[in-house]
Design a protein that fits this description.
Distance between the termini: 31 Å
Number of helices: 11
Order of helices and strands: HHHEHEHEEHEHHEHHHE
Low-confidence stretches: 1-12
Helix content: 25-40%
Length: 258
């Protein structure tokens, strides 16, 4: 993906902020606990916080949370959901916090949008020594047959390379961690934690419609893709009638600041 394409995709969510807030899943609590394991204190930065899907889990876990999000539409939804939280406009490449002011930096389905050559030193700057950096991704469990079929039908715009259990480890690995210079981090670790989201066929289609690839797709192609997904869900016995659980895991990529 070239830089211009990444900018287009990364900036696509604001127009769909309300739908994102309504339909995107939160994160497995066990994944958040593992991500924060060994952090030197309770101060956590949710970086690229979006509408607060990870933020809410962090708050519920008892962390002392600050959220930073660049998109004003997404930030407005976060502030609506968590009005008492300190939520700042800013990005990973220019974090509006002092040096060594947090004990952990977490990013929920956001780290792949960071320019880590710039963001890495910034993250290291705001982290206390021994602090934790972790990216979290909700991924579909494609070991489940109908979920694997959904991936085939939806295509990469709806279910991309980081969005399934079969692909996320390879797609993330240490790709999104700082490499050198001012950002000094230890060896990365990966783990997955069971998760799920109660959906209907209509609400799952609405969820997939908030993916970046879908948001930037030409309208006719987008509608054709969503219609194809809807037809698949209507035919699959697991999803044809009423509510079902979308089988997911929360994958975590974690490293410690040296």
């Amino acid at each position: 993906m070239d830089h211009d394409e990444q900018l287009l995709l990364g900036s696509s969510f604001g127009a769909a902020a309300a739908a994102y807030a309504e339909h995107r899943p939160d994160y497995a609590y066990a994944a958040v606990r593992w991500a924060l394991e060994g952090a030197p204190g309770p101060r956590v930065l949710d970086l690229g916080a979006g509408t607060g899907k990870l933020t809410g889990v962090l708050v519920a876990s008892g962390a002392d949370v600050i959220a930073v999000e660049p998109d004003p539409g997404m930030l407005a939804e976060l502030r609506r959901a968590l009005p008492d939280l300190r939520a700042l406009r800013g990005g990973a490449e220019a974090i509006p916090l002092p040096d060594a002011s947090v004990d952990a930096v977490l990013a929920g389905n956001a780290m792949h949008w960071f320019d880590m050559a710039v963001a890495g030193p910034e993250i290291a700057r705001v982290l206390a020594p021994g602090g934790v950096l972790a990216g979290l991704w909700n991924v579909i469990d494609d070991r489940v047959e109908w979920a694997a079929g959904l991936e085939r039908v939806g295509g990469s715009a709806a279910i991309g390379p980081r969005d399934t259990l079969g692909n996320w480890r390879t797609a993330t690995a240490d790709t999104y961690l700082p490499k050198s210079g001012a950002a000094r981090f230890g060896a990365p670790e990966q783990a997955e934690f069971p998760h799920g989201q109660r959906r209907t066929a209509d609400s799952l289609v609405a969820t997939l419609a908030t993916r970046a690839g879908m948001l930037v797709m030409p309208e006719r192609e987008r509608q054709d893709t969503l219609d194809r997904i809807r037809a698949f869900l209507a035919d699959a016995p697991e999803t044809a009638d009423g509510e079902f659980t979308l089988p997911m895991l929360t994958g975590v990529l974690r490293a410690r600041r040296l």
